[in-house]
Specification:
It is a single chain. By secondary structure, the chain is α/β, with parallel strands linked by helices. The protein folds into 4 domains: 223 residues, P-loop containing nucleotide triphosphate hydrolases (Rossmann fold); 172 residues, P-loop containing nucleotide triphosphate hydrolases (Rossmann fold, 3-Layer(aba) Sandwich), CATH 3.40.50.300; 104 residues, no CATH class; 216 residues. It has 22 helices and 30 strands. The strands form 9 sheets. The chain has a 7-stranded parallel β-sheet, with helices on both faces. Helix 13 links the parallel strand 12 and strand 13. Helix 17 packs antiparallel against helix 18, helix 17 crosses helix 22 and helix 21 crosses helix 22. The longest helix has 35 residues. The protein is globular. InterPro entries: Cas3-like_dom, CRISPR-assoc_Cas3_HD, CRISPR-assoc_Cas3_HD_sf, DEAD/DEAH_box_helicase_dom, DEAD_box_RNA_helicase, Helicase_ATP-bd, Helicase_C-like, Helicase_Cas3_CRISPR-ass_core. This is CRISPR-associated helicase Cas3. Belongs to the DEAD box helicase family. In the central section; belongs to the CRISPR-associated helicase Cas3 family. It holds the Pfam family Cas3-like_C_2. Keywords: Antiviral defense, ATP-binding, Helicase, Hydrolase, Metal-binding, Nuclease, Nucleotide-binding.
Length: 784
Amino acid sequence: MSDYSAFFRQATLLAEPFPYQQTLAQAAWPDFLEIPTGLGKTAAIILAWLYKRQVAHDADTPRRLVYCLPMRVLVEQTQANIDSWLERLNLQDQVNVHILMGGEDGQSWVMQPEKDAILIGTQDMLLSRALMRGYGVSRYQWPVHFALLHNEALWVFDEVQLMGAGLSTSAQVEAFRRTLTTSVVTKSLWVSATLNRDWLNTVDFADYLPKAISLPLSSAEQALPEVQRRIKAIKRLSKAACLLSTETKKNYVAQLAELVSQQHQLGTNSLVIVNRVERAQQIYAQLKKQKPAAELLLVHARFRLQERRQLNQRLQQVAPEAGRIIIATQAIEAGVDISSKTLFTEIAPWSSLVQRFGRCNRYGEYNQTGGADIFWIDIEDDTLPYAPEDFALSRSHLLSLESATPSELPKVTTEQAIHPVLRKKDFLDLFNTDADLSGFDTDISPFIRDQGAAQLRVFWRDIEKPQTDEPQPLHSELCPVSMGQIKDYFKDKERAAFVWDGLAKTWKKIDQPFPGMTLLLLARHGGYDLESGFDPIKKPAMPVVLSEAAQSDDSFTGDQDSRKTKAIELPAHLRHVFEHAQHLVEQVQAQAIGKHAVVTAAAWHDVGKSHKVFQHTMLQDERLSDEKLWAKSAANAGHQRRYFRHELASMLAWLINNAEHPQRDLIAYLIVAHHGKVRLSIRAMPDEKPPKDKPHILFARGVYQGDRLPEVAILDQIMPATELRLELMQLGETEVMGPSWTTRVQNLLREYGPFELAWYETLVRIADWRASEAEQQEGTENPL
């Protein structure tokens, strides 16, 4: 189908695309998309990308579309729209669609980097991955997510006026990609109806801003009847007969609920948008007491997946005969495809108010019946989550306006608030995924969201206390919570929270949560309501629905990938991974230097499994012969040396046996990093000890100076028996091993940059995963 108009009509079941939608599909990608609310920005972007990838085969359109949304409530709605478009276009098998929300299987979306994919998530989930600190993701998966989101990816930042600190971070990271380079093309597209390009004027992106291309509506496009109906939509604007201040705070909720009931009209949606989750919950409870005939819905970002899906389905349904009253927070400002005849909104920054106005008479559907009404509510105190000065410009505009018709609204000229700015050195430092000796990581939350926004996730289990084998959380269980809410939750001293400790391989009780954590809460302590979401004052026991799932191996000492039903000999596994790596680098068209490094690292990646410690573990499966070397077995035992990492032994063997190889250090890095557990540093663990009979030798990660590996068949060559040496874990340079590992890695980062280095690292890991999966297929040794 070469005609985009036909492509668009088939996907959407609508008439012709707007001219800007046609331009987006047939011209080079712009940097900014500035289109009024209600004119199909999401469809424009998704369908343009699909057309360029699947029909036009545009070489400048990356194969992964990363759709970054400011609010969690938008994610499932966006996925539902995309799924329907793909089904109508018969492209379900050609394009993968994944939600990145934390708690998902770490390998669920990364196994096919050569396939077109649409990745949808909130800025918390996506930007944290882009900074190598993925929220709700095993630290050992961080490099893989980082690589796939920075190489051959088109980032779409939707409703940028809501991104806060994340907006400047998005600009900085785009600048880093341009200066540090990626292995394949990656782009960013910023989208909003109220875009001020000066918001992107960050220290590193400023040089690129003057040449940035913007796509707005043309003058001719604005004159089209369908556009006119939207931008001339009748929206009367007046000040509500209530005020939030210190004096009125006690009665505010009741007064507002009464006003909403009075103004609601049968058969229509009435929308109430307030600035705080707690206030939305209180108004919802107050309206429930009135027992109105209208359907009541509460919308905010503090729901679990299963309740949120039900809520989204109800939002998309036509209002019942008695109508529907929706109480919401900022979660409904951006992208939610809903329209109301009556809108109440608390005062907010002007860019946010413009978005809220867009949820009223959104398509001009009430123009023929007298239009719609918007009532704005002033706030003198309790301005959170905004600063008091955010309201000054909005108040001056509101007091001078009687209409919120889009074409008559003042433009957004406000400056972005001052946020911490991510600098290049900080970004490069994040490439190291090792926790510090206290087990903590750099707090990236100031670069992702403004203070007060959702910054950690919780889930509940109906248990007395978590045991070591308590499964990791599923995506469907997780509920985002602000730092303020979790503090309120712990005002009840009986309540407890637990966090997974990957080093100790156990659930640890925690007294002081910090941003980015995933906390296990006890169901009997409450804190959640199916209708109102996370609520720290709720005491009744929390209802838990848990699907069966295998526990993910999120511990440093674990070696789950080596425990397989079907035993595999080591030489065979090395050959299988090599073959999968060859196939993969051809499919993703890796650069020549990278191709050689990836396939060579794949061939050598597990030679360290020949180590006696690893073989002792494999041979706990008594069916296996000790005359062979094994890469996989059904043995479910821990290693004799608790922290033993076979990939470190593999890397040392490679260095010792390939002293003259021109890509010696790059291949060594790809070998040692293929599980994500040893990467930029080689050090002993805090409680790791040397052998009692040799207390003064070098040791790290279960490998001792002088350990020996036997001969290993690697493809058509034999690696000779090799004595392992660990001098490179020390600073400086030695005659035997040369520069330290730290020096080698820093040189690699300078030569290849973090994006390309992580990309090669990821290709080796995926080849290993694919080969391991194929080996377990019945009747087939190594299907590609």
